[in-house]
Amino acid sequence: MSEGATPTTRSGRARDVWRQFRSHRGAMVGMIVIGLIVLAVLAGPWLWHVDPTEIAMHVRNKGPSPAHPLGTDQLGRDMPARLIAGGRVSLTVGLTAMLMSLSLG
User: Whole-model pTM?
Assistant: First the structure.
């Protein structure tokens, strides 16, 4: 190293990485989208009180309506409720896999 040069500290490198990340428009958009998905999945059960497994054959394959904003599937199950439930499972599986790989690696 030359005189006067100081090695980059861990916090200095993290600050540089964060600064570069913030300056990348695609990275910021991706972080916002992922954050919104996680927020929707975590807050969903408090905001949307429909059972994702409830079968209602009289409303099957219906399009969007005030009662079912994303419509229903072939068994009449509410799509937003199913998306929230599926998102919770996906986040749990992803976080568990990440924690296992970190602990075993």
Answer: 0.72
